[in-house]
Amino acid sequence: MSTEVRVPALGESVTEATVATWFKKPGDAVAVDEMLCELETDKVTVEVPASVAGTLGEIVAAEGETVGVNALLATISEGEGAAPAPAAAAKEDAPAAAEAPKGHIDVPVPSLGESVTEATVASWFKKVGDTVEADEMIAELETDKVSVEVPAPQAGTIAKLLVEEGGTVQAGGILAELSAEGAAAPAPKAEAPAAAPAAASGSKDVENAPSANKMMAEKGLTADQVTGTGRDGRIMKEDVMKAAAAPKAAAPAPAAPRAPSPAEDAAREERVKMTRLRQTIARRLKDAQNTAAMLTTYNEVDMKAVMDLRKKYKDEFEKKHGVRLGFMSFFTKACIHALKEVPEVNAEIDGTDVVYKNFVHMGVAAGTPTGLVVPVIRDADQMSFAGIEKKIGEMGKKARDGKLSMAEMQGGTFTISNGGVYGSLMSSPILNPPQSGILGMHKIQDRPVVVNGEIVIRPMMYLALSYDHRIVDGKGAVTFLVRVKEALEDPQRLLMDL
């Protein structure tokens, strides 16, 4: 008897996926719920389990092929005695994996977050033979969304590292083994006080923050170039940022220029594998360029009215609502107002259909040390200024801490990106598919403008709307941006719904 293996449901508005990896080959025995292959969509990674035990037959969709929902992937032959053998073997192996050798403790992969099934080992902070304390950080994992620290389940000695740096681990897998016999190792430290100062001076007993180690590697800094402000001199991420921003010593006068050889250049290069998050960002942005007919229209807005209104009410606003009044709530409200008049900017293309959204899930792009993410403020059109400010603050903190879940970054209908916080004066934002529009904010700069026939100095900002011309016409795009401009230059229009 043969059972078909088909593509499972891929999520809201996702109609196809790419076969990323086959974990089995034809002829391999498989157990019920054993993972057969992995699919990738533009949003998530999906694992395909075996629904029955048996032997994997023909693989219909090879690695790299694109498949639709419910497409045939492979077949499983349910032969008598075909599945029990590997299942029994798995059961025999299970106690060994769970218990490990006598006196050994497994270090498991911690929870990776909703719908995240695998991670890459970014760094090992310990090596075989090192002693560790309970809950001491021994490794850092990276997923395509967040970084995850791995603590030691109890005190002991690192007996074996099962996955090397750069290796991929599955959720629930085992990373290393600890020897419980090494738990007594810290005792000799008390008997050898003479060795303690040397260890302290070498900072071997102080574990730096994993995020600090990662940033030092990125910035090309060593621990002796950074002053730690954490407990016992622990180096924190903020310490690395300060050291990186500190002025460097004047460089010696350069020697007479000469053409370097390729070998000399190669010796000074550094090759670093892209993180999963950066790979996902690169793929999605390139897909947006390849798929959408993307254009950008520009305008400028006089921010004086918003700045005056904010200055007048910011103290009272913060006292009442417990959150500062920023510019993002004004821009969010202005975009919501404009989206009601030009609904195609809040729509998306699904095959040959246009899907209009009668709600606004506002994406707010946020820069993090590992890359750009876009948390989504759901039903922003139903929120007050205070509600929007609180949600933006909450999501921004989660983004910086790497704590955003997959659900908090899905379902957006329109996006706002603020390049002005980095000093950008003008840019063309790229669409966040499958959305049809994204607003780019920029730096506020005093410029001379003509108002009522007179030249005056006003705080001006350039605005950019990138849109998908397949669904949004030029007239609609320009109208949208003009409505945003009008609402910001006269904020009372938002209250009057004009």
UniProtKB/TrEMBL annotation:
<dbReference type="GO" id="GO:0033512">
    <property type="term" value="P:L-lysine catabolic process to acetyl-CoA via saccharopine"/>
</dbReference>
<dbReference type="InterPro" id="IPR011053">
    <property type="entry name" value="Single_hybrid_motif"/>
</dbReference>
<keyword id="KW-0816">Tricarboxylic acid cycle</keyword>
<keyword id="KW-0012">Acyltransferase</keyword>
<dbReference type="GO" id="GO:0005829">
    <property type="term" value="C:cytosol"/>
</dbReference>
<dbReference type="Pfam" id="PF00364">
    <property type="entry name" value="Biotin_lipoyl"/>
</dbReference>
<dbReference type="Pfam" id="PF02817">
    <property type="entry name" value="E3_binding"/>
</dbReference>
<comment type="pathway">
    <text>Amino-acid degradation; L-lysine degradation via saccharopine pathway; glutaryl-CoA from L-lysine: step 6/6.</text>
</comment>
<comment type="subunit">
    <text>Forms a 24-polypeptide structural core with octahedral symmetry. Part of the 2-oxoglutarate dehydrogenase (OGDH) complex composed of E1 (2-oxoglutarate dehydrogenase), E2 (dihydrolipoamide succinyltransferase) and E3 (dihydrolipoamide dehydrogenase); the complex contains multiple copies of the three enzymatic components (E1, E2 and E3).</text>
</comment>
<dbReference type="InterPro" id="IPR006255">
    <property type="entry name" value="SucB"/>
</dbReference>
<feature type="region of interest" description="Disordered">
    <location>
        <begin position="84"/>
        <end position="109"/>
    </location>
</feature>
<dbReference type="InterPro" id="IPR000089">
    <property type="entry name" value="Biotin_lipoyl"/>
</dbReference>
<dbReference type="InterPro" id="IPR050537">
    <property type="entry name" value="2-oxoacid_dehydrogenase"/>
</dbReference>
<dbReference type="InterPro" id="IPR023213">
    <property type="entry name" value="CAT-like_dom_sf"/>
</dbReference>
<feature type="region of interest" description="Disordered">
    <location>
        <begin position="248"/>
        <end position="269"/>
    </location>
</feature>
<dbReference type="Pfam" id="PF00198">
    <property type="entry name" value="2-oxoacid_dh"/>
</dbReference>
<feature type="domain" description="Lipoyl-binding">
    <location>
        <begin position="104"/>
        <end position="179"/>
    </location>
</feature>
<feature type="compositionally biased region" description="Low complexity">
    <location>
        <begin position="84"/>
        <end position="100"/>
    </location>
</feature>
<dbReference type="GO" id="GO:0045252">
    <property type="term" value="C:oxoglutarate dehydrogenase complex"/>
</dbReference>
<keyword id="KW-0450">Lipoyl</keyword>
<dbReference type="InterPro" id="IPR001078">
    <property type="entry name" value="2-oxoacid_DH_actylTfrase"/>
</dbReference>
<comment type="function">
    <text>E2 component of the 2-oxoglutarate dehydrogenase (OGDH) complex which catalyzes the second step in the conversion of 2-oxoglutarate to succinyl-CoA and CO(2).</text>
</comment>
<dbReference type="GO" id="GO:0004149">
    <property type="term" value="F:dihydrolipoyllysine-residue succinyltransferase activity"/>
</dbReference>
<dbReference type="GO" id="GO:0006099">
    <property type="term" value="P:tricarboxylic acid cycle"/>
</dbReference>
<protein>
    <recommendedName>
        <fullName>Dihydrolipoyllysine-residue succinyltransferase component of 2-oxoglutarate dehydrogenase complex</fullName>
        <ecNumber>2.3.1.61</ecNumber>
    </recommendedName>
</protein>
<feature type="domain" description="Peripheral subunit-binding (PSBD)">
    <location>
        <begin position="207"/>
        <end position="244"/>
    </location>
</feature>
<dbReference type="InterPro" id="IPR036625">
    <property type="entry name" value="E3-bd_dom_sf"/>
</dbReference>
<keyword id="KW-0808">Transferase</keyword>
<feature type="domain" description="Lipoyl-binding">
    <location>
        <begin position="2"/>
        <end position="77"/>
    </location>
</feature>
<dbReference type="InterPro" id="IPR004167">
    <property type="entry name" value="PSBD"/>
</dbReference>
<comment type="similarity">
    <text>Belongs to the 2-oxoacid dehydrogenase family.</text>
</comment>
